[in-house]
């Protein structure tokens, strides 16, 4: 006799068929498979928030940093010079941080402006105001021109005209000039205070009071190196300090970085040159090399026009004269190489401009044109020869013989 459990059905449950069981097993296996494939196999860096990844990228720096080339995810993340629309610039903050951390230098890193002003106030009790005018002016100039960019930043591939706009009117110097300016500022302050100490010591002893002891102590101007001999610092001597011009500090002219001496040339690159010349005071020190580079591969597929290039050249050359035998010959060769009528018209205008500019100065102020005549003799292009003869003075006997005339 069996027992009855309350609430339990007395009917026997039907056991499922083997087909039904296999379907259930397949369903469970499918779910398990999906769970297995959904496991996050991303790297640790990929799981981090974008802000932290940007910070890591920034601290590592750009030299040898290939994080952006690791995979597509990071490649998309670090397309920071591009925009998704007209107003959105996701990489704005990252570029600002990279510039601040790796390319911004403090020219006052070896001096303490506030400490210097406090010492001036202390010494004013024993010396007249005119003794401090030069030093106070220098400190004010240093304070107003504290930070500067390294011109190396303009060699970076992510630099374009929009990033140059972001930089604005910040000063930029070559790395070696930055190092020298930091050193000269420190030594200049030491030099000035050394002169003040001598003046105080040369006063009658009755007026010295307690300042003799103060003058003999170590001056705390930042790095506490002020008691070192001025000539002990490599590269900076007392004579350097006497010729050091404070007024030159805010308006130092920097040479264009190497990137702007060679291709590829584009309209955006030329726009960058224009902005760097106008706002950041960059000038070409070897303009011939840049002009020749821009003309060497110029054709109807080039991503810029000669006309816009010429306008910028006039603004970024130190003397305003960017013509030379090398640039004239490069233009003639570009003319020989191109068949496009529009390109030829542009180059004809350019070569005329270059010839007038080159022969418009005194003979002793320009380089020899012998190379130009040699090129014309080898080229045997009558059109080119006539263009030069219209502007150039009558060549000498040897040149005429070279031309076969």
Describe it.
- The protein is mostly helical.
- The protein has three domains: 42-81 and 89-102, no CATH class; 104-153 and 166-247, no CATH class; 257-403, no CATH class.
- Helix content is 53%, strand content 3%.
- The protein has 19 helices and five strands.
- The chain has helices spanning 18-37, 44-47, 50-60, 72-77, 92-102, 113-123, 133-144, 161-167, 175-201, 211-216, 238-243, 267-279, 287-296, 306-316, 325-337, 341-359, 370-379, 382-391, 397-403; strands at residues 104-106, 147-150, 172-173, 254-255, 282-283.
- Strands 1-2-3 form a three-stranded mixed sheet.
- Helix 8 (161-167) runs parallel beside helix 12 (267-279) and helix 12 runs parallel beside helix 14 (306-316).
- The protein starts with 17 loop residues before the first helix and ends with a helix.
Strands of the biggest beta sheet: in what spatial order?
Answer: 1-2-3
Order of helices and strands: HHHHHEHHEHEHHHEHEHHHHHHH
Instruction: Classify the helix fraction into a percent range.
Output: 40-55%
End-to-end C-alpha gap:
139 Å
Strand content: under 5%
Number of strands: 5
Offer a few descriptive terms.
405 residues; two-stranded parallel ribbon; 5 strands; flat; F-box domain-containing protein
